[in-house]
Amino acid sequence: MLPSFRRNRYRVCMNMDVSPLQSVLLIGQLFLWTCDTRAQQVFRSEPRNLTVRMGTTAVLRCEVLRASGTVQWVKDGLLLGPERSLPGFPRYSMIGNLRRGQYNLQIEDVQLDDDAIYNCQAGRSENSEPIISNLAWLNVLIPPSEPYFEMDTLQYWVAGRKYSVVCVAPDAKPEAEITLYKDGVELTGAESFTMSGSKDKLLNTRAQVTFTVPDAGYNDYECVLSTSASSYFGPGETRSQSWTILALECVCQSGNPRANLQWTKDGEVVLTTWEEDAVSHVSKSVLHLKIRPADNHAVLSCESVNLVSVAPQSTSRTLTVIFDPAKVNLVGSFVAIENDELNLNCFAASSNPPVDIRWWLGNRELNSTAVTLEAGENGGMTTLSNLTYRVSKQDNGMKLSCVAFNRGTKVSKTQNAEITVYYPPQKVWIEGPSEDIPLLAGTKVRLVCFSVGGNPPGNLHWFKNGRPVPMYHCNATNEAEKMVSAQIRLHVLFSAIAMKITANADQFYRGQTVTLECNSGSSNPKSNISWSLGTQRFQGVDQPHRKAEYGGFSVSSLLSLNVSSQLHNQRVICQSHSAELPEGAKTFFKLNVLYPPEFSLDQPTQIQVVEDDMAVIPLLVSANPEEVSCVWQHRRKNLVKERDVRFQWPNEFTLEIENVTRKEAGSYKIECTNEEGVSSTTILLDVLYAPSVKAEKDPVYVNLGATADLICVADANPIISDMFSWKWLGEEEVEMGEEIQQDESSLLTIHGVTRAHAGFYQCTANNGVATPGSTDVQLVVQFKPVIQKGPQWRKVASRGDGTAIAELACRAEGIPNVDFIWEKKQMLMDFQNPRYEEKTVREGSFYTSTIQVVNVSALLDYAVFTCTARNPLGDDKLDIQLVSTNHPDPPSSFGLVSVLYDSVTLEWIPGFDGGLPQKFRVRYNWDKSGRFLYMDVFPPGEATFTVTGLLPNTTYNFSINAINAIGESDYADNNAVLTITTMDLPEMSGPTEEVHSSDVMPTYLAVVFTVVFGVLLLLNSLGCFFGLKWRKNQGHKGGVEGTVPNGATKEEEGSIQSTVSNKYESREKINKAAQRTLLIDSGSETDSNLYEKYATEGPHYYYPTVDYRPPVSPPLPEEVHRPDRHSHEYEEVKDLAMYQDVPSSPLPPLPPFLDHRLPHQRNEWKPSAFPLLAPEQKAVNVRQAPKYSELPFELRGELKSPDEPTPAAAAQRGRPAQRLCHEAEWVSQQVWMRK
């Protein structure tokens, strides 16, 4: 389907009756469409089929180049929405880099509903047509549900007999594979088949195995599944059930014959066997039924019927199955804090009758809060009892029981749990010294914390609080979430607990003044501070004291020093002391600058090197201390010395890489370590290398008129702008389109692709490093088939006598593949018919379909065959007419190629050759002459020809027709005349007076020429008179209407034929370009020919070697002669007075450079070397052309209506007898003029 703008474009071409206003609107729409194609959006990547497991995450890719429309995802025909978060689909979202046009669909926690067909589409925009991607299938794998056995429960299993076991694996995708085991041994011979599952797309797999039961006893059977999605059960897992057997007896008395009995359960037949007692005339059937809970409320019926029963008689019993709950569950938390409430649930599965639930705590029964009964499985009832109970610490460790009692089975099921109650400790206290006693720091004091009670026992934790007086706390806690604590306070004398020196800068330099501050931590009593450096003592500036932790005081002092290199590594000591304390505290500050390794400002951060050269990476680092070790890393891997011989370290701080490659490019991280820390730097090694180019997609397919995007990607370093260039590798020049570079890729966009754009394009990348790289990308232009439709393709000729074979060829060009459909008379052809055979041959983008028609029949096969060539982009048709061999069709498009002062080059398109070889004949004359010259084209099949020997600045009229063995065609283009004027004579250098004087004919020669010419005219008139008289006599002797009798010999036929065709048998070829004969005509007839022969002219012609036999009787003037369409009789001219002398030709004399005679010959006159009529030549009878009905069948024309002329009549129309007298005189004049 063409876009709307394109459809309008074709509508403008095909509909020529639109109004001017409509034309303007359509042309404007075409202009907009043309502009739109310059920004057509296309897919760079499209979604593909994906298979994932249920519960995982799936991502379908979609990347749009030049996205301008709204991009959406479609799931099974449903649009998901344009927003990337996809509201309404919580597990769906669009992810990816929006700047790169990525609209990838991400589906989290994939479910069965996600198993669908997806596609990505970009909507229409102002600049682009809509596009739709390929369809992609998301296949979700789902493991099967829990398997189960289908057992034959209608009969006992007897040792030695064969039984069947069926295992079902439900709801899997794809289907599961089942393996059956008996007592751990795999059972072979199982047959599996699949059925529809509970949901669409899910499958149930059933596996059945038949085996012989061994000796009596119990057997375990296992069903093991495996799928491509997961597996559920393995060997070792056992499923077993026990059953209760119920025996029911059905007795039917009387009836003759005795009744047939069968048992049904809920309408399904379960037993069809019975026993008959002939004595008592009783039928009896015993049903042994394994009772299951599922049989509750089942209806068992015994039906009896015999041959005379109208309807079966039956009796029914409804089963009431009393069964216990399969399980009793106690749900809730059994741990609580004192005085909190426990909320517990006791759930009993389906039972009949419903159970009574009672609660017990130890020996004490508790009252349940609420009891809920609901319908359960198998017609039973489920029971749910709720209990709310506030616990106390006395309940700790007691057993809580839920008892479910079934009044029907008198069976109780009990579920027990132990209650745990948490409660805090009852009391906490500390034993230690009184706070009135001073204690020196360092004195050992024993503090003991006691805790009593609590479940679980309390955990004791000591805490110290120093504000304002140190106090010690003992906290007792447990899971009861209640803390009980005790505390004690001590009076402690202590020196400064901490000393710290701080500086005004982290690093020190020579000549810099450093201010140090010494802070003394909390002390009791207040301390005094002093400074020392080596043996020197300094007095600092004391700062006001302040209260500190633990009830002490904190003091500080400032000291200023001018540091130098001599003070490197020297210690500045700060000491605090008090008279009440035997000792104080001190600390020091080291003045040397301690710093981790540092890298110089001259350290290079990037090093460029060309591939295969040596790369040198220096490291400029300093540190204090100076012992530095460095670790080199590349791509997070440590570089180990001597691992690669190309990596060398001349010293610790230089790396050399020989023959460096692009693999070594990237960031090198160097971590240098000393005692103070680690410093690292990153050096980028940039390895420059020449581009290597590859095509992102090759070949690139694009429809005719669309936008083609050719993308090539380069692996190169560096990536520079304008590094890409595109080159067309074809011979003819085409418009290259728009080139855009996007980082490492280049995009060549060609809008409005034509067939001339198809071929190879070369993408070259040059970044200035070594040799440029290039790659070739093929552009394949797809277009609808175009059938060759020249005249030679529209008709095929063959004999229709049932013995000939005709081939109809249809040649089309198109991409993609072209198929052909043939129709005959608008009906599809049946190639099962042995008379028709079709074959198709492909040569590149050309396809030729040929039909061979065997035993061609005029009645059956002379028809119009229609060839239709088609591909996905469109089709084309050609009508081919199968006709009989006939005269050729006229040429067409007769036109001028070039013109000179003495020659004209003409061209035309050959028409249908009538099924026989054809040749072409050019007819021409100058505008002041009513007679024509004829020239046969050589070689015969050429479609261009040069007519030479023309006069300068002269107007000529040209026509052309075609001739074959049957006849000739009309003149080209409906007998049109091509009027051409030759160019002026080019100027000649040198004096011309002598030439003109030499060209002037002497007077005596003129007199001689006049006398001779008069004698020739007299002889010509006599010859015409006697010839016509003789021809009349022969015509009366030859039969009625001048026809040749049927008994004429072949020689006569041959002589007559020679009068209507030209034969060139001369073997002396003088001019290889053309074969020329001058045929003098009176106006329109071309079959009566006269050859003009030049004895002294230059080498321009072929000389005919056959005898020339002109017809005898001249025709009437063209204005009077109108031959009948269906007859070819030549009317005789009785009035000889019409033959008059022809006046001298008005043509000027030949220029000197066209006169090829020698100078001494130019003044000599010679008669024509060609005899007008040899004495030995005799006039012959002109046979009347045969009628159409007399022609052989194979030479007849195609079937026509009665109003159309027959081919034979058309071949002979307009051919009156030649005017021999006039032509002889005219030839004489021409010979005289050229001499």
TrEMBL record:
Domain Ig-like: from-to ranges: 40-133, 214-320, 325-420, 425-530, 691-781, 785-884
InterPro entries to which the protein is assigned, alphabetical: CD80_C2-set (IPR013162), Cell_adhesion_signaling (IPR051275), FN3_dom (IPR003961), FN3_sf (IPR036116), Ig-like_dom (IPR007110), Ig-like_dom_sf (IPR036179), Ig-like_fold (IPR013783), Ig_I-set (IPR013098)
Record CDD domains: FN3 (cd00063), Ig (cd00096)
TM region(s), chain numbering: 1004-1028
Subcellular location as annotated: Membrane
UniProt keyword list: Disulfide bond, Glycoprotein, Immunoglobulin domain, Membrane, Repeat, Transmembrane, Transmembrane helix
Subcellular location, principal: membrane
GO molecular function: cell adhesion molecule binding
Protein topology in the membrane: Single-pass type I membrane protein
Gene Ontology cellular-component annotations: cell-cell junction; plasma membrane
GO biological process annotation, one example: cell-cell adhesion
Fibronectin type-III domain span: 890-985
Low complexity bias spans: 1207-1219
Ligase among keywords: no
Region ranges (Disordered): 1039-1063, 1197-1219
Listed PANTHER family: IRREGULAR CHIASM C-ROUGHEST PROTEIN-RELATED, NEPHRIN
Protein name: Nephrin
Lineage: Eukaryota, Metazoa, Chordata, Craniata, Vertebrata
